[in-house]
Amino acid sequence: MPTTKPELLTNLNSNFAKLTPGGIREFDYKASKISGIIKLTLGEPDFNVPAAMKEAAIKSINDNDSHYAPGTGTPALRQAISHFMRDRYSLDYDPNSEIAVTVGATEGIYASLSAIINPGDEILITTPTFPLYMAVTKILGGVPVEIDTSTDNFVLTPAKLQEALANHPHAKGIILNYPSNPTGVTYTESQIKSLAEAIKATNLIVIADEIYSELVYDGQHTSIANFIPEQTLILNGASKSHAMTGYRIGFIAGPQELMKSVSAIHAMMVTAASDPAMAAAVAAFDTAEGKTATLKMKKAYKQRRDFIVDALKHLGFDITTPNGAFYVFAKIPAKFGKDDIKFATDLANQGKVAVIPGSFFGAGGQGYVRVSYATSMDNLKAAVKLIADFVKEDN
C-alpha cells in the first residue's frame, strides 16, 4: 500500500480545512454497525424504480445506446423535462438552451455554484438545510452566510432576508431548498411570491433546489421561478420523485445566459450522464406511468408522515408539521437538553433507532433531530416503540 509523501499534504486545496468533519453519511455508517438498529437516517426512498423506467433503461441497453450523449443530455430527455416543468409548474424552458441534465441534483449544486462563485463571494443559505451547500461553497472559495429560520417555522421571511442583505450587501447568490431537507417545510404561493418580490429588488442569483417538489402533500408546489425566472436556477431530478437515486439523473433549468456557464462547467466535470439512465428518466418525466408512480408514492409518504408526526408529538417532541419531502425535524424533549448529537448517539446505541442530529444542518438545528420516513410503515411502528422506551427511561 503506497504512503503519501508527507510534503505533498501541504499542496492540497486549502479550502478543505474549512470543512466541518463528520456528517450525515458518517453518522449513518457508524449506526449501521449496531446490531438490530432501525435506520431513519437517509433520504433514500424504499420504493423500487417503477417498471416503465426500468423497461426504458433495459431497452436502451439492448439497443446499444452506449455512446457519448450531448453534454446537456439527450434531446429526448431535455424535451421530457421541458414538458414536465410546463405540465407541473407552468414554467417554460427551451430544451435546447435552458436545460442541462446532471449526474444527480448533487452535481447540479456543484455546477451551479461553480458558475457564480469567485473567491470571497458570499452566498446566503437558509438554515437548517442540506449541509452540502455550505461545503461546496467553501470548497469553491466562497463564504456561506447562514440565515437561521428556526424562529420563523423554518421559512425565510422578506424581513429576515432584508436583515441579511443589510449585513451582507455584496452577497452574490442565495440558496433556497423547498420542500426542505431536513425540515420538510415548504412555502405557500403567497410566501414565495413575497420573497420573490424582495429578491427582485436585488441582483442575487437564486439557486432553487426543488428536488422534493413532487412531494407536496397539501396544495401544490410553487416555484420561485414563476415570479423571477430571470434570476433563478432551478435544480430538480428523478431521485426523490421516482425513487431513482441510483440512476443519478438531475437537471438544472434557467435563463439561457446563465445556463451557458453552468452547462459548460457541467460538461467539463462529467461530460454527460449515462444513456440508459437518461432513457429511464424520459419515462419518468414524460409518461402517464411516471406521474402515476409518483402519486402512489406520495400517498404512502403522507400516511407515514401523519403517523410519525402524531407519534413523536405524543412522546414529547416539538414538531412543525412538514408539508413536503419525507423528513420530520423534531425538537428533542426538554429533559434531554439541547445536545442533539448526544441524544442521537444514545438513541442509536441504547434505543436501537438511528436518526440524524439536527446540528449537522447548520444554524437553528441544535436541539433537533431529523427523522426520515422514507421507510416502511412496519419499520416506523417498530421505531416508535423503541423511541418511546428510550425517552421514558431516566437518562
UniProtKB/TrEMBL annotation:
Domain of life, per lineage: Bacteria
GO molecular function: pyridoxal phosphate binding; transaminase activity
Keyword field contains Transferase: yes
E.C. number: 2.6.1.-
Protein's UniProt keywords contain Transferase: yes
Keyword annotations of the record: Aminotransferase, Pyridoxal phosphate, Transferase
Pfam families: Aminotran_1_2 (PF00155)
InterPro entries named among the record's database cross-references: Aminotransferase_I/II_large, AspAT/PAT-like, NHTrfase_class1_PyrdxlP-BS, PyrdxlP-dep_Trfase, PyrdxlP-dep_Trfase_major, PyrdxlP-dep_Trfase_small
Cofactor: pyridoxal 5'-phosphate
Example GO biological process: amino acid metabolic process
Aminotransferase class I/classII large domain: residues covered: 37-385
PROSITE patterns: AA_TRANSFER_CLASS_1
UniProt cross-references to PANTHER family, sorted A to Z: AMINOTRANSFERASE (PTHR46383:SF4), ASPARTATE AMINOTRANSFERASE (PTHR46383)
Family: Belongs to the class-I pyridoxal-phosphate-dependent aminotransferase family.
Designated name of the protein: Aminotransferase
